[in-house]
Amino acid sequence: MTSKQNQGVQMPAHSKVSIHSSESARRDPLAKSIGYFSQNQLVKIDAALIDEIRDMALETRENVRLSLHNGPDAAFHEMIIFQHRDKYYRPKKHVGKAKSFHMIEGEMAVFAFDETGNVLDACKLGGNSGFLYRVEANVFHTDIPLTDYVIHHESTLGPFLGEDDRVYGPWSPDGTSKEDYLAYRDQLVASLP
Question: Longest Cα pair distance anywhere in the chain, in angstroms?
Fold first, then answer.
């Protein structure tokens, strides 16, 4: 069919994804937070999908992630991630995998560290501060929401290897004490340029 023949014909929305539709997204039963995998080969992110993610995260008080790929074994991973400010995001590095953060909503800080925990770089994303940040493989980093929540697009290589996918900064709080990690987070945020 040519484009002239398509005029007036309603084409199916093969790229439409909803976290409420088992045909277009399936729940990840192994995720630490609420997670979904897209089941579509074509994926369009629109305001309605962002609203679904935001509404679920605000209602449950949990972080919510929609992976645009269909499973952990995919070679390339893209995710839309909602993060609450009151959670701890421990500094980590991914061996052999770079990562990029692209802001959609809110403001977030990203910190990069050397092997001993010294801050190499720090930046704000969102608002008028910038909208994309890339961290090379084998670089310790953390992302910290500065607003009550953030929604961002994250890209990295697959496959996902679970606990073998990351190395935590041994100099950072391990997350067992909320007081320790909040103090560490607040110290990092206070150092932002």
Answer: 64
